[in-house]
Amino acid sequence: MTSEERRLREAIIAKCQWMNASGLNQGTSGNISARYEDRMLITPSATPYHAIEPEMIASMPLEGSYGEWTGPLQPSTEWRFHLDIMRARPDVGSIVHTHSTYATVLAIARKSIPACHYMMAAFGGTDIRCAGYARYGTKELSELALAALEGRNGCLLANHGMIAVGANLDKAMWLAVELETLARQYYLSLALGPVILSDEEIAETARGFSTYGLQTAQPKRVAKAARRRSEKRVSGKR
Questions:
Q1: For residue 206, what are the domain limits?
Q2: Engineering a disulfide at 19: which of 10, 25, 101, 205 sits with its beta carbon 3.0 to 4.6 angstroms away?
Q3: How crowded is the C-beta side of 77, counted as CA atoms within 13 Å?
C-alpha cells in the first residue's frame, strides 16, 4: 500500500466518523467509497466506524471481474451501486451514502426535492429525484440509483436514504450535507407552501457558481493587477 493510498483510506474513515458525529448518519447504515487509480476503495460491511483501520477498507477493481474484492473484510452490502456509479461516471471520484433523517423522511414519502432553494444548482439540475424502491444491496437498486443520478450529483432512494457523488471525497461529503439541508428546508416549507424557483433561475445560479469564490485559473493575473494598483497608489499616479 502506497502512502497516498493509505492517506485516502484514512480520509474515508475520518469522513465516516464525522458523518456519524454530525448526525448525518447513524450506526453502520451509511457507506463511503473513493476512486484510487483503477480501483474503488469502500468501507467494509457492518463494521463500526471507530473500529475500522486503513487495512480493513475493501478494494474492488473498476474493470474486470465484477464484484471481486480484496481485504480482510467484505465490502459494504451496497458495493453494487458504488461500483456501477463509478463505472458509468468517470467524473465521480467519491460516493457518500447515508440514512440522514430529512432525506430519508422524503424518501419514505417517495417525494423528489424540487428547486426550493438556489443551492439545487449544485446538484446539476432543477430537482433531486427519488429513485424507486428495491431491496438494499441488489442490482435492481443499483439500476434505479443510476437512473435517478442521470445528470445529477445526488438522489434519494425510496424508503431508504440518499446518495451524493462528487469529484473527490471532500466534494461528495459537502454535497451530502447540502442534500440533507435541502431536504430539511423543503420538508419544513411544506407546512407553509413552498415557492419553487424556475428552471432559468436555477440555470442563472449555476452560471454564477462558475465564478464563485477563489478562481484558481487566474491567480497570477490577479496578483499582478493588485501589485500594479499598489504601485500606483504609492507613486501617487491614478
A1: 200-235
A2: 25
A3: 10
